[in-house]
C-alpha cells in the first residue's frame, strides 16, 4: 500500500530537510542552535527551489542488514584511512593508481547512487563516472596494491552493492540482481567477502 503522493512528498521533504541540516552542521563542525536553524533554513530553501525528482523505492528497510552495512562501512573507512595515512608517511612510495570499471547487478538509480556514495566516502577510492542506463561505475583507486589488485577493487564495489541491496531491496529486486537474502536473518551475507582497502 502506497501513501498518497502529497503525504509521501511531505515526508520526503521533511527527511531531506533533516538530512541537509545534519550535513550543514557537520560541515561547519559546530553544534549550536544558530547553526541548526541556519542548516534547516538552507534545507527548506534548497528543497523549495530545487525540486527533487521522484525516487522509485520498491523495497523495505531490513534493520539487521542495514546495521551490517553501517558496520562494514565504518570498518572500511578505518582500515582505508590507516592505509592512506601509511602511504603518505612512507617516503619514496609511489602508489599505482587505476580507474576500474564495475558493472553493477542492480538497475535502480537509488541503489547505484547509494553504492557510489559509500564507495566515494571510503578514503582511497572515488567514483569518477556513473552510467545510470548501463549501471556501470568507474572507480578511481588510489593504490591498486593496497586494494589487493584490480579484481579485488572491483569485488569491493560489488560487495558494497550487495550489502546495500540486502539492506534495502525487496526480494524480487534481490533475485533480479542474482542475490539472496540471508536465510538466518542475521544481516551478514554468507558469500560476502568484501576486500577492505
Q: Into how many domains do the coordinates divide? A: 2
* DSSP summary: helix tally: 7
Q: What structural category do the secondary elements indicate?
A: mainly alpha
Morphology call: globular
- What is the alpha-carbon Rg in Å? 19 Å
Model regions low in confidence, pLDDT < 50 over at least 5 residues? 1-7, 183-191, 193-197
Work out the number of β strands.
3
Q: What's the helical proportion of residues?
A: 55-70%
Strand residue percentage: 5-15%
* Order of adjacent strands in the largest pleated sheet: 1-3-2
Oligomeric status of the shown chains?
single chain
What does the largest sheet look like?
3 strands, antiparallel
The run of helices and strands is HHHEHEEHHH
Separation of termini? Answer: 41 Å
What average pLDDT do the residues reach? 82
Short description:
The protein is mainly alpha-helical. It has helices at residues 5-28, 33-49, 63-89, 109-121, 144-147, 150-168, 171-176, and strands at residues 98-103, 125-131, 136-141.
Task: From the structure above, extract its key features.
single chain; 7 helices; 2 domains; 3-stranded antiparallel beta sheet; mainly alpha; disordered C terminus; disordered N terminus; 197 residues
Describe this structure in words.
The chain is mainly α and 197 residues long. It has 2 domains: 5-49; 63-176, no CATH class. 56% of the residues lie in helices and 10% in strands. The protein has 7 helices and 3 strands. It has helices at 5-28, 33-49, 63-89, 109-121, 144-147, 150-168, 171-176; strands spanning 98-103, 125-131, 136-141. A 3-stranded antiparallel beta sheet has the order 1-3-2, covered by helices on one side. A hairpin with a 4-residue loop joins strand 2 (125-131) and strand 3.
